[in-house]
Amino acid sequence: MSPRPVWSRLTLPLLTLLALAAVALVPATARAAIAPPWCGTPMPDAAAALPDGTGATDPVGSFPHIPWYAIGCTLDRIQAESGGRMSVEVIGRSALGRELYAVTINALATVQQRQSFHTWEQIRKVALTDPERAQALLADAGADVKVPIFVQGGIHGNEFEGVDAAMLLIERLATTPYGSDPEVDAVLDRAVVIVNVIQNPDGRIAGARANGNGFDLNRDFLTQSQPETIHSISIMKRWLAPDMLDLHGYVTPTLVEATTKPHNPSIEYDLWLKWNQSRIDANEAAMNAIGQQIQRPINDWCPNAALPGPTGLCAGGLPPGPANAEGWDDWGPFYTAMYAQHVGLNASTVEMCSNTACGGRAGSRRAQYTVSWSTLLFDVANRHDLLADELEFY
């Protein structure tokens, strides 16, 4: 396996950022708050029926997963405690008529926060019609700008823990008192975080991959035939987030998508690789700091002709691949992350681990949370250049 490239074009304080990302853990206060007894009207729910850690035979890492019926009222409770920095919007309904929730964290309490958001609003007005003008506005603003970042959970209903991780992320950003956590302050000052909490409520309730129409939503972003897809795309187009995470499962160790061939010719690969590789560096550092590993498909392979050592495995203990890295391609914009790359700039599918070695389901939730939090820290630290390159793509 060849060495991973060093992306020297990123001159911002990446090492400082990686140190911050490395200590990103699930906050104990949020973990305690999003727990039974659940609000809402109880109804059968596959997520709520998973082992919750109270039984003698429950697997390692079992915890109470939030049921769909409790998500709306829990978000309402968090919003009431947010001091105005969080809003909740029902952006539509699923195939079977269940509400789809979009959460926006956008702190506007300080003059700096309001000015930085106003700068982004001015850029957004002309980003698609006059991107050169938008670049000029960004150059004038310098670092005084907010960056939108989009996180989506639960597109496959039986990949449960991404939704639970998204709820923890929301609560930390919404309810942590300003001035008490430098990482939260950095995100509040420099980002708008948009979370599509549960893309597929029908599937989560049924414990199924597909939505209520029996459709795999992660194959629908080109056809756009399902209501859940249409509403997710509405968020992407509204905010034009230059980075997006789609929270999936299950691959061990956790896979953070750095795509392989065949490639889509409409993606600007010099810009995409610059940001995807360096952001995944930050994700990997944060995951290593909590004792977990990640896979990066474009990096982690070795050809059959060069099998090292007596085990027949590649570096990192992974099985060998073909002569070229393949298997997680970005050719099809019917995948969520591939569509998001065309709307914004960078995106990754995050396939969380799920086994005893990585902590069971609690470890899966922690992996999704850690990748998401380290992404926020990386993007806010590099917001100006990230937005500039997105405008260059436009």
Characterise this structure.
This protein is of the alpha/beta class and 394 residues long. The chain contains 13 helices and eight strands. The protein has helices spanning 14-22, 28-33, 68-80, 111-126, 131-141, 161-175, 182-190, 201-206, 227-239, 269-289, 336-343, 360-381, 383-393, and strands at residues 86-93, 99-105, 147-153, 191-196, 243-249, 254-256, 294-295, 346-352. It has an eight-stranded mixed β-sheet with strand order 1-2-4-3-5-8-6-7, sandwiched between helices. Helix 1 crosses helix 10, helix 5 (131-141) runs antiparallel to helix 13 and helix 7 packs across helix 12. The model is unreliable at 1-32 (pLDDT under 50).
Q: Tell me what portion of residues adopts beta-strand conformation.
A: 5-15%
Give the helix tally. Answer: 13
Rg, Å, rounded:
20 Å
Strand order of the largest sheet: 1-2-4-3-5-8-6-7
Helix percentage:
40-55%
Based on secondary structure, the structural category is alpha/beta
What kind of sheet is the major sheet?
A: 8 strands, mixed
* Euclidean distance between termini CA atoms: 34 Å
Say how many strands there are.
8
Spans of at least 5 consecutive residues with low confidence: 1-32
C-alpha geometry = globular
Compressed to H and E, one letter per element, the order equals HHHEEHHEHHEHHEEHEHEHH
Mean pLDDT: 90
